[in-house]
Specification:
Two copies of one chain form a homodimer. By secondary structure, chain A is α+β, with helices and mostly antiparallel strands. Chain A is 25% helix and 17% strand. Chain A has helices at residues 3-7, 49-61, 103-116, 129-133, and strands at residues 29-34, 67-71, 83-87, 92-95, 135-139. In chain A, strands 2-1-3-4-5 form a five-stranded mixed sheet. In chain A, helix 2 packs across helix 3 (103-116). The longest helix of chain A has 14 residues, at 103-116. Chain A starts with a helix and ends in a 10-residue tail after the last strand. Chains A and B meet through helix 1, strand 2, strand 4 and strand 5 of A and helix 1, strand 2, strand 4 and strand 5 of B.
Chain lengths: 149, 149
Amino acid sequence: MALTDLTSPNPDSPADAGGAALARAECAVTIFVCITCHGGRPLDLVPVPGAALAEATERAAAGTGVTVRRVRCLANCNRGLSAAMRREGGWTYVFGYLDPAAAAETLIDGAKLFAQAPDGLMPWRGRPEALKRGLIARTPPFDFPGEPE
Amino acid sequence: MALTDLTSPNPDSPADAGGAALARAECAVTIFVCITCHGGRPLDLVPVPGAALAEATERAAAGTGVTVRRVRCLANCNRGLSAAMRREGGWTYVFGYLDPAAAAETLIDGAKLFAQAPDGLMPWRGRPEALKRGLIARTPPFDFPGEPE
């Protein structure tokens, strides 16, 4: 079974990631940006690339309803820059190999798509390419009952 | 800053992962085992290595207070076998490169250690080596307020 099958039970869900600011109820998305990631750049670079990405993502989130939080280390150090994305009642995704120049807008586009998904999974169709290639892991919602034996 | 610094704010916390069954309140740990992981083994292998690991982990969890749930794909496919571990009010960890023969006991040992941590982080000291080497990512607790700017 291909990853696209496993992560896209809703391939026909709407892929329009644009539109107005999100309703906050039931679909609020939080992006956690790792502010300690260097992404292979020199360790003494200032600002730290992850911190710069956090700031850019905060700016890109203005007016969208997406929450951005800074976090010290997502433990994805060898695959940075890194961010995680969580939706209320939904799955949590970790992304790596993010482009410092483009990832802020990419993350917000992904968050908008995620917020609109009916099933708490980020759709594969319409997902920004960098959030396909850079997918590191996903974890289930808090109340996930588990698959049957 | 080294990863051990970032992930071990409590290096002096108790590293004794043994002891009696865990109290379930406030420190319940859930392990999510990916049942679709092949871990580089043939795709037609039966049982699927991830499913076999899930079953072994369920057996190893008996009487410990640790909950084991099966999940279809943690999207860590290239780094399987895979499992995630979450603690109530704590962080969520994703582990990869798990040894099909040893990982069930390793995951339970890690879960016991995690359950005893006072701060919701899995201690680095005392953590099974496979859960150091195989650390893929971690994500914050649901109510994580974010680091200050």
